[in-house]
Amino acid sequence: MNSRPRANVVVTSGVAIGERCVIGANSVVTQDIPPYFVAAGAPAKVLRAVTYPNAQP
């Protein structure tokens, strides 16, 4: 898992966080987050896609 969860993130059981995701501080992740996305909130919602110059999907 090459993702970036920030401070005080709660990930519930059985949830998958995709490659290179960014999860905002104080978020509660209750659903799977697809690769290369930013998610935040309680419950966490996908906010936008992240583009990396050398990323391979």
UniProtKB/TrEMBL annotation:
Domain of life of the organism in this record? Bacteria
What is the protein's given name? Transferase family hexapeptide repeat protein
Record field: transmembrane: none
Protein keywords: Transferase
One term of GO molecular function: O-acyltransferase activity
In terms of Gene3D superfamilies, this protein maps to:
Hexapeptide repeat proteins (2.160.10.10)
According to its UniProt record, which protein family does this protein belong to? Belongs to the transferase hexapeptide repeat family.
PANTHER family given for it?
ACETYLTRANSFERASE C18B11.09C-RELATED, SIALIC ACID SYNTHASE-RELATED
The chain's coiled-coil residues are none
